[in-house]
Amino acid sequence: MAFIKKPFKRLAEGGSAAEADTYIDLGELTFDAEGGALGEPVEHLVKVAEVYRYEDVADLTTHVYNGNILLVDFTSLASDELALKRITAELKSAVRDCGGDVAVVGKNVLMATPAGIKIDRAKIKGNF
User: Domain tally for the chain?
Assistant: First the structure.
């Protein structure tokens, strides 16, 4: 029964439970701009996109041309092989035009990078 008395003991002594524990509301945190940790401007951003049809690819390639890294989730098209081949071929040609790199990094996730950023195909595995 000693474990029940401790929280009530604080309240009986005049303190409140809120004073003992302080919380930070993460929803109230704001960030000034998309900058580095020291406020420096960012050169590259990682953009996450979902593809639902072939026509969406034109919007995605502009992000790679602008120097951003693109993670493309094509889960909704995993069963449509023809659309998937067309989308990957279009992304590959656009990325190769700007000197970047393309690789599949998950079951239904493709990564496209701009010039100067290469994707390492070797996985880092933990020691278990």
Answer: 1
